[in-house]
Amino acid sequence: MGCISSKRAAASASPCYEYSAAVAGNGSVLLEPSSSSLKKNNSASAASNSNNVSRSKSKPKSKSNSSEFKKSGSKREPQNQNHRPGDVSEDRSVVGGRQSKKSRKEKEGSYHSHNSHNGGKGSAFSFRLGFSSRSSLEAEQVSAGWPSWLSAAAGEAIYRWIPLKADAYEKLEKIGQGTYSSVFRAKEVETGRIVALKKVRFDNFQPESIRFMAREIMILRRLDHPNIMKLDGIITSRSSNSIYLVFEYMEHDLAGLVASSEIKFTDMQIKCYMRQLFSAVEHCHLRGIMHRDIKASNILVNNEGILKLGDFGLANVINSKSKRPLTSRVVTLWYRPPELLMGATEYGVSVDLWSVGCVFAELFLGKTLLKGRTEVEQLHKIFKLCGSPPEEYWKTSKLPHATMFKPQYNYESSLKERCKEFPTTALDMLENLLSVEPYKRGTASSALMSEYFKTKPYACDPSHLPKYPPTKEMDAKNREESQRKRPGIRARETTRKPRRVRKALHESNGSAKVAPKEDGQDDHTQSARRINGGNPFIPKVKGGLLRRESNLKPQFDTVSENCELNASQGYSTLSSVQTSAASGFAWAKRGTEDGTKSAVSDGSKSQFSALDANFAKSTFDLKQGYRTGKTAIRKLRTFDTSELASTGEPDDTGNDMDSVVEENRAIEFSGPLLSQQCGIDEHLQRNESHIRHVSRRSRFEREVEPQPLQVTI
Ligand SMILES: Nc1ncnc2c1ncn2[C@@H]1O[C@H](COP(=O)(O)OP(=O)(O)OP(=O)(O)O)[C@@H](O)[C@H]1O
């Protein structure tokens, strides 16, 4: 296929790529160096080694070396928790030698300590490695300064790079918290440049979790576009169980901007952001990558108005030839397309277009478009907004759970009504993006060529966007927290909104993800704390049914299994709760793991009892969660390896990450998907107040617990 060159691409300064190259890139991800380059590498690393050794010997171990990072003047500077004594000065390969550019070039041969961005077809990343064995590659990488655990599990991801030096950065404050990472602002000592350090931690050096991270790195290295976050390099330590990914620093994320009450985007500004976002998505898709977690908080914006798509932790390579099923447990719930909610295991880039549609609407509305609290509710909201698909769709659908989710009544789309304030061309584009049928969503390229971008008011130039005060999702959260701590406000707010529930979830969870939220609340502070599988609050009943969830990332599934165990111990009666196939939606319960089919109880009554049980169990889990949650997280904070597990080793296509769906996965319902006539809203409200009550009580219990005395030695 020819080169994609258009005014649009030029306008966005997007490089010109061949589609065929992108797709061909899917499979071959490795590099074949010539034997001479191999020799060069060997001698380079030997040189690098001796250099490191002599440096570590000559450099006396000082106190400040006890932290991997240079000490910041700021008192708030977080210390590296994973530091072990001797990390820096005793272990020569703890941090690789990142000398001045010139000497580095001389000494390292073909290694790069930062992103070389040779982007496009010629990427070093996209050839085959010629090492005689994995162990020789490992030896090579270890001598270049990489820890062996990383090289063993993710050699390809770090191929031809050397680690960056930790003490080349001064770590400043924490700026973001993700599911499995913390993000810090930091200063590059030599240049004063501000960067973002994403700390990714692994428990017990599990190869699967390392390979998940490796996939993110490999994908980031494959991408090279002004609207996609650039990975500058990796800081690692031989002994620590974490690494830092170094990114350029971005002042804002869209979640924070949208949440700010002072910011209301104009049409031109929205168009400017959307053009940049579509350009980023187009680049990913042309390079054979689907992001699978597009949401406002993963879209970063700097003070120059440049938007960059970040967080490729769930991204995957598109492999149209592969018959391997994909996991449907991707994309944050509010941005998750209907086919994934219905369990699709074969899907493509159109999942991203749905998410982009949700972000698009959010920019206009100033709040999240579809805020389901459970997968079922999310799908219900989608059908109510976008219309339920025609009969033909259900007849021909191969989606695993399609028959279960088919609504009894057809819904007409209410999108026009809900978005009546939008410009016509924007609404047309939104209708395409939010098509329940994926093929109707078009492509990022077609969106960029749509009438929306061709009509006035045109997109403004990024440099004309206003300079915003700090508005990260985390800033918004902090603002909310400090507001809440102010006396007077606290009492009022706690009676108005069940925040305590979410806080409890947050705390018991151990990671900053929660929660169902109520209309009118700040969406994005919620999204950072959304419900996830690690939350003991989630009522997942063994053997089948209910769960109040879930925009979890797949890596946390195992955590919820642990919680499921806790729950089932004390609340086993709930496992017999049945759902109904009778009204509202055609329910069926999938066989449990041992293959038994559940009986289907009758009538709408059981629908409600399922929902009641769900919420009742939530309260149980909430209490239980305080006790078990943290241990559960600690023990089982591991990745859902379903996409990694099938092969273990990379296959020829390099697409080993992309595979097996959770077999035997119990279908998790949060209650039946009811039509509005069934009064689900009132029911949810009732349950909500029940949760509120329990959370208040449990908080009260916690508060009256005696606090341990502080002992000063
Ligand atoms: N380069 C950056 N510059 C500034 N802030 C950043 C940068 N990268 C990430 N952040 C902040 O950190 C937050 C979390 O980062 P990121 O999404 O990459 O982590 P994650 O663990 O994958 O998160 P999640 O689970 O929410 O997807 C972002 O929402 C953003 O606010």
Q: How would you sum up this structure in a few lines?
A:
With 713 residues, this protein is an alpha+beta fold. The chain has 26 helices and ten strands. It has a five-stranded antiparallel β-sheet with strand order 1-2-3-5-4, covered by helices on one side. A three-stranded antiparallel β-sheet has the order 6-8-9.
Q: What features would you describe in this structure?
A:
InterPro entries: CDK, Kinase-like_dom_sf, Prot_kinase_dom, Protein_kinase_ATP_BS, Ser/Thr_kinase_AS. ATP binds at residue 198. Pfam families: Pkinase. Residues 68-93, 470-496, 515-526 have a biased composition (Basic and acidic residues). With 713 residues, the protein is an alpha+beta fold. Among the domains are: 146-248, Phosphorylase Kinase, domain 1; 252-477, Transferase(Phosphotransferase) domain 1 (Transferase(Phosphotransferase), domain 1, Orthogonal Bundle). The chain is 39% helix and 7% strand. The chain has helices spanning 7-11, 19-24, 35-58, 101-108, 134-143, 148-154, 207-222, 254-259, 267-286, 338-341, 350-365, 375-386, 391-396, 402-405, 415-418, 424-433, 444-448, 451-454, 473-485, 489-496, 499-509, 523-527, 557-570, 603-636, 642-645, 680-704; strands at residues 169-177, 181-188, 194-201, 231-236, 242-248, 252-253, 289-290, 299-301, 307-309, 316-317. The strands form three sheets. Strands 1-2-3-5-4 form a five-stranded antiparallel sheet, with helices on one face. Strands 6-8-9 form a three-stranded antiparallel sheet. A two-stranded antiparallel ribbon has the order 7-10. It starts with 6 loop residues before the first helix and ends in a 9-residue tail after the last helix. Residues 1-66, 72-110, 115-129, 489-642, 644-681 and 700-713 have low confidence and may be disordered. It binds adenosine-5'-triphosphate. Adenosine-5'-triphosphate (ATP) is lined by residues 175-176, 178-181, 183, 196, 198, 229, 247-250, 253, 293, 297-298, 300, 310-311, 313, 472-474, 553.
